[in-house]
Specification:
The complex is a heterotrimer. By secondary structure, chain A is mostly helical. Chain A contains 14 helices and 4 strands. Chain A has a two-stranded antiparallel sheet with strand order 1-4. Chain A has a two-stranded antiparallel sheet with strand order 2-3. The relative contact order of chain A is 0.16. Chain B is α/β, with parallel strands linked by helices. Chain B has a 7-stranded mixed β-sheet with strand order 6-5-7-8-9-12-13, with helices on both faces. The termini of chain B are far apart. Helices cover 72% and strands 3% of the residues of chain C. Chain C contains 11 helices and 2 strands; from the N terminus they run ααααββααααααα. A two-stranded antiparallel sheet of chain C has the order 1-2. Chain C is globular, with a radius of gyration of 20 Å. The model of chain C has no long low-confidence stretch (mean pLDDT 86). The chains are: A mainly alpha, B alpha/beta, C mainly alpha. At the A-B interface, helix 3, helix 6, strand 4, helix 12 and helix 13 of A face helix 1, strand 2, helix 3, helix 4 and helix 15 of B.
C-alpha cells in the first residue's frame, strides 16, 4: 500500500529513464540525503563520526568500486588493498611534493594512478578466469605491499617508511573537525554512487553484465571482451584508488603499508558479497555490516554484563563474525540487497495479501 | 521461511545499528582514567599479552598503595590486534570516557603514527616507552610524544657498543661483517640509519636483510647469511619472526652466540620454545630488563596476585616484557603525580596537565628506589625539548631456561643520536609545516 | 656452485612443505568444487589441538612418554578434525548447494574466522611447543667437493619424506579404493554421481575429513618447525600460488607446483633479492604462478576450462 505505483505514469522517455522512477523512492532518497547532510553533522558525536561514519563511507566507496569489478563484470579480484594503497600513496605524493596542489585534485590523481595499475594488473584477466584470476590478483597485493616498503621515492624518503597527509584544506576551507571530514567523504560517496549507477545503466554496464553472465556468448554477439574487462578494471580501480586516498588522508591521517594489506582486500570482498553482488545498495549494506558488526560485537558482552577478558571477547567476535557470514550466505546468497528488494516487493502489496 | 529470515536479519542489523548509541557510562568521574590499547590476539599476541599484564598489574598496585595522592586509577583494555584502524577506533572510543583519557600507550608503530596525528588535536600525550618514531624524542617538534626510556636508534647504537665491547674496542670493528635481519616494516627499518652511521665511523661492513611480515619464511635469509658468513647478526624481529630466526639459525648451523637482539627480540616468548637450542643468544635491552628479584615485583606478587587480582599468569611476573608494561604504566603514573605537584594534589589531571608533568619528570635514583625499581631503572630526567629522558640498557643472555642480565649498563651515545634526532625532527617539521615550540609554550 | 645447489635443495624442500598444505586445497576443490580458504585455519586448529592434547593427556593420565603423548595427541586431533568436517558439511555445505564459486569461497572465509576464534578460545593464543622428535641440527655433506660443504637440513628432509609418503598414500587411495573412486566420480560431476547412488553428503564429510587429516599432518610439521601459534594460518597464503600453478584439480600438480614455486622463490630471493633490496619472495611466487597461468590458464595439470554456449 505504501509502495503502490498507482497513478505514476510517465509521459516522455526522459522521465521514464530516470534513476528513481517511483515517487516514494525519490522522497525516501531525498529524506536520506537531508538527514545525512544536515541532521547528522549537527547531532552526531565525535566518536560516531570518527569511528563509524567516516570508515563506513570510505569503505562503502571502495566496496562500490569493487562491486563494479566483481558484481557487474564478474572478475574476482583479491588485490583491492593494493589499489587502495596505490591511490593513497599517489595522492600523498601529489599533495606533498607539489606545493599548493589542491586536495580534490590529489585525491582524484590518486585514483588515476590506481587506474593505470588496475588496467595493468587487469591484463591477465583476458586469459585467466575465475578462481585462478582471484589468486593471480594477489600478486598485485603482495607486490604493492613490498613496493611501498622498499621503494623510498614513493614514501618521499621518509626514514621510517610511514607517511602522513598533514593538514587538509579544500578551496581554502580547513577540513579539521570530524563533521567536516564526514561531509567530504559523504560528498565523494554521493557523486560516485550516482556516476556508477549511470554507468551500469548504460551500454558499458550492460557489456559488463554480459561478460559476467557468459563471456563466450558475449564475444559472439560482438562485445569486445578486452574493452569490457579492462574498462571494468579501470573504473573499479579509479574508485578504489580514491577510496584508498580518502582512507589514508581523512580516516587514518598517517599510515604504513600494512594498513592496506590482504586483510583489507578480504574485508572488501566480504562487503561486496554480503551486501549483494551487482547492486549499488549492496555496497552500502555490506560496508555497514562489516564496519559496525565488529564494534558491536566487541562492546556487546560489556552491555550484557558478562565479565569477559579482552582476549575472549576478541575471539568471540571472530567466531560470531564467521557464523554470521555463513548464516547470511545461506539465508540469502544474493546478499542483503536482495533481502532489501524482497522487502520492498512485499511493501508494494502490504497490508493486502494480493 | 523467507519472511522469518527477513525478520531475523533485520533484527540483527537493527541491533548492530544500536551500537551507534553511546554506551552508558557508569563510572564516577573522580578517577584518573588510563585506557590500555593492548593486543592479546593476532600474530603478535605472545609479545603483547605479558606487556598488557604488566601494565594493568602496576595500575592495580598503585590503587592498592592508595592511588596517586589519593586519586584512584580506573582503566579499561581495548583489543587492537596490532591493527592500525582498530587502534584508531579504540582511541576514539576511549579518549573521552570516564572524564577523559590520561595517556595512550599503543605498543605498536603503526598505531603510534596514527595517534601522533590525532593526539595533539585532542591534547592527550602518547607515551611510547622504548619504541615509536625515533625522532619523536625531540619534544620541540613532537610536543605530545614521549619515548621515555629510549628509542629504537638508541637500541641499535647500544648493540654496536656491545659488539665493540665483545671485540675489545671500537677499533677492532674494522673489517668485521655485521648483518641486520629486520622485520620489513617501519619498526624494523628504524635500525638502519644508526647502523649505517656507525659503519661509516668504524669501518665495518654492514648489510641489511628484510623479512616479510609475519616472518615465518626465513630460509632464504639464513641461506644468504650462511653464504656471507657475517661475524654478527642483529635480530630486529617482532612476534613469531624471532623464534623462527633462531630456529633457522640452528637449522643452518649458525652459532646463536653471534646473534644479538634487542628488547622486541629479547623476550621470553621469543626463546622459551627453543630452550637449550637458543643458548648463548643475547639481547641488548633498553631498560628495563627482566627483574624477577626486584622490589616492585615482590610488591605486585604480594599486593595484587596474592589477593587473586593478578592479570595474567603469575609465572610471567618479572619477565622482560612484563616489566616493560610495568615501567610504561609507572611513567604514566609519575607524569600524573608530577602534574599534581603543580596543578593541585589529589585532583584528577587533564591530558594537558599530564603532558607538563611528563615534560618535567625528575626521577632520580632515590625516587626510583622508593617506588621499588632499584636495580631496574636508571634516573629519568625529561625536559621540554628532550622527551626521551636518557637511554640506558643492559645485556641479557639466555642460558637455556631464563634470561640472565649482566651487570654493566650501556648508555646510548648522545653525540651520535642528538644531531640525528634533531635533523629528523626538523625534516618532519618542515614536511608538515609545524613550527618548533617556543620556550614560552613549554611553561604551560 | 655449492651455494647454488644448497639454495635449490632448500627451495625444493620448502616447496614440498607448501605442497603439503596445497594438497588440502586440491582435495576439497576436486570433490566439492569449493576453494577452501579455511585450509590455513584448519592447519592452525589441527596443530593447536595436537600440541595441547599432547601436553594435557600426559597430565590427565599421568605418564611421561613423549612418543605416546604425541601419538595420542595426534589421534585426538584427528578425531576433532573429523568432527569439524562433519559440522562444516552439515551446517555450511548443505545449505549452500549449487551456489556460485564466490559465495562458497566467502563461506569458507567465514569458517576460517570461526575456526581461528574457536581454536584460540579452546586452546589459547600463546606459542605452543610441538616436538615430534625431528632432529633440528643440519648435516653438512660433500665437504670435499664444495667449500664449506652442502648444508642439508635434517628437519626438512624428514618433513619432505613425510609429505612424500602422504602423497603416495593419497594417490593410491584415490585410484585403488572404492571410496577413492567415489570421490573421483563426485569430483567429475555431482549430479551424475548422485544419480548412480553415491551419497553426496557422506562423500563431502569424507573429503573434508581427509583434508583435515592432511591439515593435521601439515600443521604437525610446520608446527614443529615454527611453533604453534596464530601465524601458522598465514602459511596457507604461500600455498595459493602452488595450487593455481599446479591446477586446482590435480594432486600431482600440487607437488610439481610446490617444487617449482619453492625453488623459484628461494632462487629469486637469494640471487635477485639483494639487487632489489630484499623481501621479494612472496610476490615473486605469485608473479611466477601468474606467468605460468598466462601460458596455461588452467594451471599445469588442471582441467581445461571448457565453456559451452
Amino acid at each position: 500500500m505504501i509502495y503502490r505505483e498507482n497513478g505514476q505514469f510517465k509521459t516522455n522517455y526522459l522521465s521514464d529513464q530516470q534513476i528513481l522512477p517511483i515517487r516514494q523512492d525519490r522522497i525516501a532518497i531525498a529524506l536520506l540525503l537531508i538527514v545525512a547532510a544536515v541532521i547528522v553533522p549537527l547531532t552526531a558525536t565525535e566518536y560516531l563520526f570518527s569511528a563509524i561514519l567516516v570508515p563506513f563511507l570510505v569503505l562503502s566507496l571502495a566496496a562500490l568500486g569493487l562491486n563494479v569489478l566483481v558484481g557487474y563484470c564478474g572478475q574476482i579480484s583479491l588485490g583491492t588493498g593494493a589499489f587502495m594503497a596505490i591511490g593513497a600513496y599517489a595522492a600523498f605524493n601529489f599533495h606533498t611534493r607539489i606545493d599548493g596542489f589542491p586536495l580534490l585534485l590529489s585525491l582524484l590523481m590518486g585514483g588515476a594512478c590506481a587506474t593505470v595499475f588496475g588496467v595493468l594488473f587487469g591484463i591477465p584477466s583476458l586469459r585467466i578466469r575465475g578462481l585462478y584470476l582471484a589468486v593471480a590478483t594477489l600478486a598485485a597485493q603482495f607486490f604493492a605491499d613490498w613496493a611501498f616498503l622498499r621503494i623510498r621515492w614513493l614514501t618521499n624518503h621518509s626514514s621510517s617508511g610511514s607517511v602522513s597527509a598533514g593538514r587538509l584544506e579544500l578551496f581554502g576551507l580547513p577540513i579539521d573537525t570530524p563533521a567536516q571530514r564526514y561531509l567530504l567523504c559523504l560528498a565523494f560517496v554521493v557523486v560516485f554512487a550516482v556516476l556508477v549507477k549511470n554507468l551500469v545503466r548504460g551500454a558499458i554496464g550492460r557489456e559488463w553484465m554480459a561478460i559476467r553472465d557468459m563471456d563466450v556468448a558475449a564475444t559472439v554477439i560482438g562485445i569486445r571482451p578486452t574493452y569490457a574487462k579492462l574498462s571494468a578494471f579501470a573504473v573499479s580501480s579509479f574508485i578504489v584508488g580514491v577510496a584508498g586516498a580518502l582512507w589514508g588522508f581523512v580516516h587514518l591521517g598517517s599510515w604504513e603499508p600494512a594498513a592496506f594489506g590482504i586483510e583489507r582486500s578480504l574485508q572488501l570482498l566480504f562487503m561486496v558479497i554480503i551486501g549483494g553482488l551487482g547492486s549499488i545498495m549492496g555496497a552500502f549494506f555490506g560496508a555497514a555490516f562489516i564496519v559496525i558488526l565488529p564494534i558491536f560485537l566487541s562492546q556487546f558482552p560489556a552491555w550484557l554484563g558478562l565479565p569477559l577478558s579482552t582476549t575472549a571477547a576478541a575471539h568471540l567476535e571472530a567466531m560470531i563474525f564467521g557464523v554470521l557470514i555463513v548464516f547470511f550466505l545461506i539465508v540469502e546468497p544474493h546478499g542483503l540487497a536482495r533481502l532489501w528488494s524482497t522487502g520492498k516487493e512485499k511493501l508494494r502489496l502490504w497490508p493486502f495479501p494480493h | 521461511m523467507k519472511f522469518r529470515s527477513l525478520a531475523l536479519s533485520t533484527a540483527v542489523l537493527a541491533a548492530g545499528l544500536a551500537t551507534a548509541l553511546p554506551a552508558p557510562d557508569a563510572r564516577a568521574a573522580a578517577e584518573q582514567f588510563f585506557p590500555a590499547l593492548v593486543f592479546r590476539t593476532g600474530a603478535y599476541a605472545p609479545n603483547g599479552a605479558p606487556w598488557a599484564d604488566g601494565y594493568i598489574d602496576y595500575l592495580k598496585l598503585v590503587n592498592a598503595r592508595g592511588g596517586i595522592n589519593g586519586v584512584k586509577i580506573s582503566f579499561e583494555e581495548c583489543e587492537t590486534g596490532y591493527a592500525t584502524d582498530r587502534g584508531v577506533e579504540c582511541y576514539e572510543r576511549l579518549k573521552g570516557k570516564n572524564g577523559g583519557a590520561t595517556v595512550f600507550q599503543p605498543l605498536s608503530t603503526g598505531i603510534t603514527f596514527a595517534l601522533t596525528e590525532k593526539a595533539p588535536v585532542d591534547r592527550i600525550p602518547v607515551i611510547t616507552a622504548g619504541y615509536g618514531l625515533s625522532e619523536s624524542a625531540d619534544g620541540g617538534v613532537f610536543g605530545w610524544n614521549f619515548p621515555i626510556t629510549g628509542v629504537h636508534w638508541a637500541s641499535a647504537d647500544m648493540q654496536v657498543q656491545y659488539i665493540a665491547q665483545r671485540e675489545g674496542g671500537f677499533d677492532r670493528l674494522k673489517g668485521k661483517k655485521i648483518t641486520l635481519l629486520y622485520h620489513d616494516s617501519p619498526y624494523g627499518k628504524e635500525a638502519i640509519p644508526v647502523l649505517e652511521a656507525r659503519a661509516a665511523m668504524h669501518g665495518f661492513q654492514f648489510n641489511a636483510i628484510p623479512v616479510t611480515h609475519p616472518g615465518v619464511e626465513q630460509k632464504s635469509a639464513w641461506l644468504q647469511i650462511r653464504q656471507n658468513r657475517p661475524d654478527y647478526v642483529l635480530l630486529w624481529g617482532w612476534g613469531v619472526m624471532n623464534p623462527t630466526a633462531l630456529k633457522e639459525a640452528q637449522a643452518t648451523g649458525f652459532s646463536r652466540e653471534k646473534v644479538i637482539g634487542h628488547w622486541p627480540s629479547g623476550g621470553e616468548p621469543d626463546v622459551a620454545d627453543l630452550g637449550n637450542a637458543a643458548k648463548g643468544y643475547s639481547a641488548v635491552v633498553l631498560q628495563p630488563a627482566a627483574a624477577h628479584d626486584s622490589q616492585v615485583v615482590e610488591e605486585i606478587l604480594s599486593k595484587v596476585h596474592a589477593k587473586g587480582q593478578g592479570t595474567g599468569p603469575k609465572e610471567a611476573v618479572g619477565q622482560m616484557l612484563y616489566m616493560r608494561g610495568v615501567v610504561s604504566a609507572m611513567i604514566g603514573v609519575e607524569g600524573v603525580r608530577r602534574a599534581q605537584e603543580r596543578f593541585g594534589k589529589g585532583k584528577v589531571m587533564t591530558g594537558e596537565q599530564v603532558r607538563w608533568g611528563l615534560e618535567n619528570l625528575a626521577l632520580d635514583q632515590p625516587a626510583l628506589d622508593a617506588l621499588g625499581f632499584a636495580g631496574v631503572l636508571r634516573p629519568i630526567h625529561t625536559s621540554c625539548v628532550d622527551h626521551m629522558g636518557g637511554a640506558w640498557g643492559r645485556v641479557q643472555t639466555w642460558d637455556g631456561s631464563r634470561w640472565v642480565p649482566s651487570g654493566t649498563w650501556f648508555q646510548a651515545d648522545e653525540q651520535l643520536l642528538k644531531p640525528m634526532i634533531r635533523k629528523g625532527a626538523d625534516k618532519y617539521a618542515e614536511n608538515r609545516k609545524i613550527e618548533r615550540r617556543s620556550p614560552q609554550a613549554c611553561q604551560d | 656452485m655449492g651455494f647454488l645447489l644448497e639454495t635449490i635443495i632448500g627451495g625444493l624442500m620448502a616447496g614440498v612443505l607448501y605442497s603439503l598444505i596445497a594438497l588440502g586445497f586440491v582435495l576439497i576443490f576436486k570433490a566439492s568444487g569449493v576453494f577452501n580458504f579455511a585450509q590455513g585455519a584448519m592447519v592452525l586448529f589441527a596443530a593447536l589441538a595436537m600440541a595441547r592434547f599432547a601436553e594435557w593427556i600426559p597430565q590427565w593420565l599421568g605418564f611421561e612418554s613423549a612418543l605416546l603423548a604425541n601419538a595420542l595427541g595426534f589421534i585426538v586431533a584427528l578425531a576433532l578434525m573429523i568432527v569439524v568436517a562433519w559440522a562444516v558439511e552439515r551446517f555450511v555445505l548443505s545449505g549452500l548447494v549449487n551456489q556460485s564459486g564466490v559465495t562458497l569461497l566467502m563461506a569458507t572465509l567465514g569458517i576460517a574466522y570461526f575456526l581461528d576464534g574457536f581454536g584460540q578460545t579452546l586452546f589459547g593464543s600463546e606459542i605452543y611447543r610441538l616436538d615430534i622428535g625431528i632432529p633440528k641440527d643440519p648435516v653438512i655433506v660433500a665437504d670435499g667437493w664444495f667449500e664449506g660443504g652442502l648444508l642439508i637440513s635434517r628437519e626438512d628432509v624428514f618433513a619432505a619424506s613425510i609429505a612424500g609418503a602422504l602423497v603416495v598414500a593419497l594417490t593410491v587411495f584415490f585410484h585403488s579404493t572404492a571410496v577413492g573412486r567415489a570421490l573421483r566420480a563426485v569430483a567429475d560431476d555431482h549430479q551424475a554421481a548422485q544419480s548412480i547412488g553415491i551419497p553426496l553428503g557422506r562423500i563431502w564429510v569424507i573429503v573434508w575429513s581427509i583434508a583435515g587429516f592432511v591439515a593435521l599432518v601439515a600443521g604437525m610439521i610446520w608446527g614443529s618447525k615454527l611453533g604453534v601459534q596464530f601465524s601458522l594460518s598465514l602459511v596457507a597464503l604461500k600455498a595459493f600460488p602452488v595450487v593455481i600453478l599446479g591446477g586446482l584439480t590435480s594432486i600431482p600438480g600440487a607437488i610439481v607446483g610446490g617444487l617449482i614455486i619453492g625453488m623459484g622463490e628461494k632462487l629469486s630471493e637469494v640471487y635477485l633479492g639483494p639487487l632489489l633490496g630484499g623481501g621479494i619472495e612472496i610476490w615473486f611466487a605469485y608473479v611466477l604462478a601468474l606467468l605460468f597461468l598466462l601460458v596455461r590458464p588452467q594451471g599445469l595439470f588442471g582441467e581445461k576450462i571448457i565453456d559451452r554456449v
